[in-house]
Protein 1
Amino acid sequence: MCIHEISRTITLEARAEGVPQFFVSDPLPFSQRILEGRIAQFKNVSDTNSPYIIYDRGIPDILAYMDSVGRPYGREFTDACRKFIYDQVFLLPPWEEIYIPDNERYENFGEALVIHDFLERTYKKYGYRAIEVPIGTVDQRVGFIMKILNEDNV
């Protein structure tokens, strides 16, 4: 079961309301909406019977993005990172050959590298040992993740 990224939806909703890049123009309210959405996602899957639940992005990602642009945030963000715990974290490094900015992903590749560094630091700060998924085909990446999950019996 894969829980999709909600920031794209929130970005598109804001654009429909006349805000071209919600995070750029108002990072804290954007991040608050992302936090609420990710907490809801976390809670909504608590009674699923799927053996694995993969979140496209986690709650600590919000802090990493805010830190990457030097914006402060309230205690509710750090409290959420401590309360809603993921069993395993996988990080997929930016891959220049396939990296394409789009209407919701506005960062250039250099900015994606900076954000990736903040993601690594933030997950480590909250006690995770993030496993980097090697570059490869989708099947190779899925195979790598499944091998880790089956080995760890997560």
Protein 2
Amino acid sequence: MKLGVMCSGNGTNFENILRSCRKDEVVAMIYNTKNCGAVQRAAKFGIPHCYVSHKDEDIIIERFKTAGVDLIVLAGWMRIVSSKLIEAFPRRIINIHPSLLPKYKGLHAIEQALDSNDIFTGVTVHYVNEELDGGEIIEQRKVPIYDGDDLEILTKRIQRQEYCLLPRAIENVKYKIQTGTN
């Protein structure tokens, strides 16, 4: 199974994917932010990577198809993908989001949970469809919110759960793809 990853940020989930997958499973990483921290992580692990503007989805599709990608993981890709990419890889694109979807879709989900005085939030891995953070849920995990939590503390607690949940969800989806039950 060949994985492609799309990143916009620091790349901690990307590195977690690299550390949890087989050595040659991640075959390409595309990033859309010039100073993306994931670039250094890709270089460190010898993963082919390139900058592509989020507007150039034809190039993204071509790069992933050329690399033979079976599954695309959005690991901090901070843009909505178009129907063109979704149609090119149907039920083959997954995303990780820092809330218990369907609650708090889109940006600032952690802040929304804090501002709402929720007692827990969480993390969700879901299939990508044309609705923002609206695809079928693959895996979820609750994360408690404690009195005194601020954005930084809660973000770190959520990230620790992301590092556990995302590799498990990837394995789940890979199994479904390999057995034809996806």
Protein 3
Amino acid sequence: MRRLILARHAESVLNAAGVLNGDLAIDVRLSERGREQAQALGRDAGRVDVVLHTEFARTRETAALAWPDAPRAAVGDLNEISFGRFEGTAWGDGYDAWCRTSGPLDACPGGGESRADAVRRYLRGYRAVLDRPEETVALVAHGAHVAYVMLALQGQPPAPVLPGTPPAVAVVLGRDRFAEAVDLIAAWAEEPAWP
């Protein structure tokens, strides 16, 4: 990979309703607005050699609408974090408070992942992206993936509450910049602590 087009998936029906979803078994599709966003993403970002996405339907659908003629492949290590007992709830119904008060090694109540475990898994996915032989790679992922990379590009480690990530907006990176961001995230993952 020499050039990466990184984007959060387009708006899903659960995004529009403000509901958290980290359960792959729940088939969450794009809203009508999301389908329009996905098509615009492909028009705006241009041609790619391959589109990577997670195993979640909303990322697959975004990838297919944005780049219908490009080969596509799933990167399971980049699947959404497991929200545990907060699955299917709104951000403000407890998950936000848990994020603000728990450490990165604390597992999300109800069988969810810790943020550190999720980041370590994401790192495997980021490295799989870096290993792709294609010149221009698009990655349609979830908001956290984009937010962690954007923070790292500013020299900042993962944070307990991530900045919002707009749907279907392309972030274009060269290989070296993406690799630097991945290295910074990896250094944090060795000894995870909030700044």
